[in-house]
């Protein structure tokens, strides 16, 4: 239930819009805004990798949208290419718009620190992989790490921390992946030209120590991020933080009642990842 309610309160151009929840005999269904341009991952697979200009355009939108989510008290915990949808405008001279689209692992972090190892392995921050049964982590900094992985992937068409090619099983593959992420050592391929400022930003995001990792404010201030940033971007951030008009969507009370009734019918408990 928490994931649905957290998504409901997010109203921003770079976040996929929540519409309503309904139930069938066996399923809970969430209706969301339609994005016509497939996932960012599908676009990347089609092109191999993005130009630095295109990667920056999507990264700017990602950071603005994610900053909004964080300021609304929600961490995503599964930032990845597959969870970003693209809105295209084929009949208009407008650039594509990125939409953060999946909040299945999100958490309202202002009530308590995250402590569950959730997400997608190749995009997980080192501190999530190293979490103990009684530990917690900073969900904001983990989201930022995952954004760095996304930026690298858009630029080079591959993850910064590929598994050992000599791994002979899924277990060995995952173990090598965890080791490489934890060490935080990466080397961009020389076959793809990327500017020095861009690589500098990546090096400041993909830092294993979350205390040394760039914050979103640091990323905003970086010269590479500022290049070609639309002049309305700063105003957009301020405009949507204070926007809380939920009159056109399903009420929070209605959602709670609907889901509670469904769980009672199915003899199940509502559960959210801590």
Helix content: 40-55%
Q: CATH superfamily, please?
A: Transferase(Phosphotransferase) domain 1
Number of strands: 6
Strand adjacency order, main sheet: 1-2
Named at the architecture level, the CATH assignment is Orthogonal Bundle
Gap from first CA to last CA: 12 Å
CATH class (first level) name: Mainly Alpha
- Segments where pLDDT lies below 50 for 5+ residues? none
What does this structure look like?
The radius of gyration is 19 Å and the shape is globular. The strands form three sheets. It has a two-stranded antiparallel sheet with strand order 1-2. A two-stranded antiparallel ribbon has the order 3-6. Helix 3 runs antiparallel to helix 5 and helix 3 runs parallel beside helix 10. It has one domain: Transferase(Phosphotransferase) domain 1 (Transferase(Phosphotransferase), domain 1, Orthogonal Bundle). It is built from eleven helices and six strands. It is mainly alpha-helical and 274 residues long.
